[in-house]
UniProtKB/TrEMBL annotation, chains A, B, C:
<dbReference type="InterPro" id="IPR029020">
    <property type="entry name" value="Ammonium/urea_transptr"/>
</dbReference>
<feature type="transmembrane region" description="Helical">
    <location>
        <begin position="21"/>
        <end position="43"/>
    </location>
</feature>
<keyword id="KW-0812">Transmembrane</keyword>
<feature type="transmembrane region" description="Helical">
    <location>
        <begin position="224"/>
        <end position="243"/>
    </location>
</feature>
<comment type="similarity">
    <text>Belongs to the urea transporter family.</text>
</comment>
<feature type="transmembrane region" description="Helical">
    <location>
        <begin position="75"/>
        <end position="93"/>
    </location>
</feature>
<feature type="transmembrane region" description="Helical">
    <location>
        <begin position="249"/>
        <end position="268"/>
    </location>
</feature>
<feature type="site" description="Important for channel permeability">
    <location>
        <position position="305"/>
    </location>
</feature>
<dbReference type="GO" id="GO:0015204">
    <property type="term" value="F:urea transmembrane transporter activity"/>
</dbReference>
<feature type="transmembrane region" description="Helical">
    <location>
        <begin position="99"/>
        <end position="121"/>
    </location>
</feature>
<dbReference type="Pfam" id="PF03253">
    <property type="entry name" value="UT"/>
</dbReference>
<keyword id="KW-1133">Transmembrane helix</keyword>
<feature type="transmembrane region" description="Helical">
    <location>
        <begin position="49"/>
        <end position="68"/>
    </location>
</feature>
<protein>
    <submittedName>
        <fullName>Urea transporter</fullName>
    </submittedName>
</protein>
<feature type="transmembrane region" description="Helical">
    <location>
        <begin position="275"/>
        <end position="293"/>
    </location>
</feature>
<dbReference type="GO" id="GO:0005886">
    <property type="term" value="C:plasma membrane"/>
</dbReference>
<feature type="transmembrane region" description="Helical">
    <location>
        <begin position="199"/>
        <end position="217"/>
    </location>
</feature>
Amino acid sequence: MDWSLSIDKAIPKPLRVIFRGAGQVFFCCNAVTGLIFLIALYVGGITAGLAATVGVISSTVTAYLLGFSDDDIDAGLYGFNGTLVGPCLFLFLENTPQLWLFVVLASMLSTVVMAALMRILQPYNIPVSTSPFVLTCWMFMVAVYSFDGFSRGPVLPAQGIPVEIVADSVASTSAWFATFTQDVTVAWYTAITKGVAEVMFADSIIVGILFLVGIAITSLRGAFMALSGAIVGVVVPILLGADQTLIEMGLYAFNPVLTMMAVGWVFLKPSTGSALLALLAGILTVICQAGLANFLAPIGLPTLTFPFVLVMWMFLFAASRSRYWGNSN
Amino acid sequence: MDWSLSIDKAIPKPLRVIFRGAGQVFFCCNAVTGLIFLIALYVGGITAGLAATVGVISSTVTAYLLGFSDDDIDAGLYGFNGTLVGPCLFLFLENTPQLWLFVVLASMLSTVVMAALMRILQPYNIPVSTSPFVLTCWMFMVAVYSFDGFSRGPVLPAQGIPVEIVADSVASTSAWFATFTQDVTVAWYTAITKGVAEVMFADSIIVGILFLVGIAITSLRGAFMALSGAIVGVVVPILLGADQTLIEMGLYAFNPVLTMMAVGWVFLKPSTGSALLALLAGILTVICQAGLANFLAPIGLPTLTFPFVLVMWMFLFAASRSRYWGNSN
Amino acid sequence: MDWSLSIDKAIPKPLRVIFRGAGQVFFCCNAVTGLIFLIALYVGGITAGLAATVGVISSTVTAYLLGFSDDDIDAGLYGFNGTLVGPCLFLFLENTPQLWLFVVLASMLSTVVMAALMRILQPYNIPVSTSPFVLTCWMFMVAVYSFDGFSRGPVLPAQGIPVEIVADSVASTSAWFATFTQDVTVAWYTAITKGVAEVMFADSIIVGILFLVGIAITSLRGAFMALSGAIVGVVVPILLGADQTLIEMGLYAFNPVLTMMAVGWVFLKPSTGSALLALLAGILTVICQAGLANFLAPIGLPTLTFPFVLVMWMFLFAASRSRYWGNSN
């Protein structure tokens, strides 16, 4: 909205770039929105907030030092991957002193990977999005097994492919129906807000609401798509019979949130058609989330936002060949 | 052949597009050939035939709705991945009511992935081939572990990396020689025809013969390459000492069938040189098949036609840098 | 150096191409350097030397037969992947008669993959480097589980993700300090030279020194970067507390050796800036090495030189978007 962009421009440049970096996690090039996101992260937990701050500063400063495009840096494009790297490593790994060094190194690497993937995708005019964050964090998380500073690898909330799935399925289905009929309203309310919050690893209703407010300040359509994505990320896994704990934590929702924002608001021309396409993309993101989670479980890695990245890439590449959305590049 | 192309043009457009979609599984843009393939699938099993029909219709209709190129749709290029998705999911997953929904969703996604990969490979002028089918089916197959509608994941015919491989090898080698000298003729006849049939997941001699007839109607060189690929896919694994059950089911042969058709008939200028190159590609496809099968076995996924896709891509990319086959694009 | 280039030009063409192929393993287009590398390999072990010779000849002859660019062949670009394929398969697999066939087939495939990746990376002007060797050897190594000719799969020196890592870490840390204070000088001397030698799979101090001499003949900056990479590959894993046996064998060092040569000498304009960038790349290669090793351990595959390839690609792609190193292609 106009008033927020006026404030955005009034903020001193170094701060503005950092805030915009945080804002770009949800595609918002707006320092006010980014500031609200950072405040929300500190509300969710001091360590997460500090880690995000260290991350966004490290990755942005690295971009300056390596001489990448000033316009890109100014838009916060070299900040959002670092913003995510910090809280991610602190959620999944042990909180040791070495971890702060890892956050700085990983944020620096995320900037190199960002520039590299921007170069690779440049002829296609497709966004890199959060893929540098995902690839960098995966590498650091699986590397810690080799280093004495860490006594364990990443800890996942999900179980992956359960061995006893056959025996359980009948019992769990009937139990699930019982729970469903009792708690369905509460679960939805929790799951949908947490689904937005989990984009930055916060298991918190209030953080999710603050994120939605921040997005709404930049764009109402953006906030509507985020909310729709969270609803898809709760309804679809319920219909498919996915694990209820994961659904209630919002762990099926944060990827569709990003997919629907990207396809339905940011990267295609806003229309009823692109909204429907975003809905299809959101539904498929839920299945991709389940598939990738089971694929990565044996190696002990979480999906992070890669289901969103994969589905968004497929839909944006495909859209460029469509007579409705494509251009002739 | 000319008479079949006359019939092809006489068939009403919607039917022709569907039939050509089936035909493109073996690179045949010919409705007569496609119709024979569909009939062969129904001969192999009513469910497989129905699943292929639902798949080819879903993927083709999706391409219309998303506004992709009319010429591509008309050539059946948005049909063959759906044709394969249907029987694939029914072979490897449980036959539950949810599975029909999955076949429709996966066929729709295969169309999105097809358009996306066409865009990615466009600057290189390299075909997407069956990669959308493979990637989509892998994702759906590994996703079902998370959903109550399915009580198990995909079931593979192969064992992957056997733990007791050392102990077995001496015994199995001598046993194999005994079997070899007795049944070698029968085994070859079975393995070669089934090798062609397994491209569409049919474990049947008659289906393989019908497929070969269908290909021969479009091109004799195509049928010759398919037959050569099947022979390579039986002889080479026998020489390398691979598992005999897998060889007899044609599971080492369906990938070289497609590789030799692609390299020796469809995508390079037909010549003695490209026939020899196809032979080398076919042999390497057998090794790639073994490697990828062992790589995917721990996660419980079959290779599908990915060995063919990988080897074909390598040879076609490489051919574009050769003074014999390349052009200066 | 000038005298070595005069000799290089005086050597008959077929021999020169083969020697340059060996030289290109360390980015040296210089037959004298390549000859020293080959001699060093034979010093390390007759079989390794023979396997490298068979590999470099097979891959170079294949490039001639398939009609790839004469200039590329003459520079040894179709030789270095074959040079690596030979000793690699002999180190990790059983020494059976079939293995010589595998070395020839894998070297031929490495040439096809080389040409394919050259075509893919051509619009970006990024080198293929040793990725064809890595991809080809991975495929052949995991394939042997399916073939009777081999009674086992590849044998790794590393353990991957240790189950008992928690219990061990306290004990091993104190033990490590004890060892560290006693043997630190010897360990460094051994680890650094072996780190250079392990690029071609030689666990030998003398081979490492011969390699450094060979590189110095082509370029002193190249030799300096190689030595710096080896030091990074010893110091950084010691600081992070990695396994000491692996460090002493040079198994954390051979990848940073190549990364620092590529980033600090071959592919960016030599300057203090690019030397610092090479240092950062070298440090990140150590973490990438640990991550990829743990990722591949369950499937039984070694990282080979892929950590170097990945980090080099990221830094070179990124450099092309930097105002300090990039060009406007």
